[in-house]
Amino acid sequence: MKQQATAERSREMRDRLACLGRAILGRRHRRQFSRLMLTFALVSWFSSCSSQQASEVETSPAILSPDTKTAAAPEPNQTQPTVTQSGPASAEVLKVSATGDPGAYTFSVTILSPDTGCDQYADWWEVLSQDGQLRYRRILLHSHVNEQPFTRSGGPAPIQPDEAVIVRAHMHPGGYGPSAQQGTVAAGFTPVTLPADFAATVAEQSPQPSGCNF
Description:
The protein is α+β, with helices and mostly antiparallel strands. The chain folds into 2 domains: 1-55; 92-204, Immunoglobulin-like, CATH 2.60.40. It has one helix at residues 2-59, and strands at 92-101, 104-112, 121-129, 134-139, 150-157, 165-172, 175-176, 179-184, 188-193. The strands form 2 sheets. Strands 3, 4, 6, 7, 8 and 9 form a 6-stranded antiparallel β-sheet that branches. A 3-stranded antiparallel β-sheet has the order 1-2-5, with no helix packed on it. The N and C termini lie far apart (153 Å).
């Protein structure tokens, strides 16, 4: 009887040990499986983040907002255009009007000239017939450096209402320029371009400037 009881207790102990071993092994397997699942989840998460960051870096376009202002890159050797005058400095007659009576008109002449002082200035304007005869000359006593364009009147000029005349300006020391006005007192005046040698000898006639005040 004792032997039989001892054998039963041994079998019961072995069964318990086997059950405990299976339980322990099962928990161990579950822990390993849990660790594997956790590792797999972490690897997947890191891979997803890396892919998303790479996608953002590679595919995000550099778009400027409408309010963003960018400075245009200067072109190489880019220079600002400059106005150069070929030949001697000359004066341009911009406008002509006349008042008064026939045969004794007062002319009002507007001139644009590159005055720099007495060394370079418009020193007179004059009225010529169509064939270049001097009819009237208005001497300018000083330069007009800070007054451009400027208007000066003179008379009386022995001109008839329908008599076609030319009004031009003289520059010291450059001489006559090509830009003048042509017309009549009755109909008005319009711009005209004169030949370079038009009535050139008239410059020697009187009256002449006696000097330049400033």
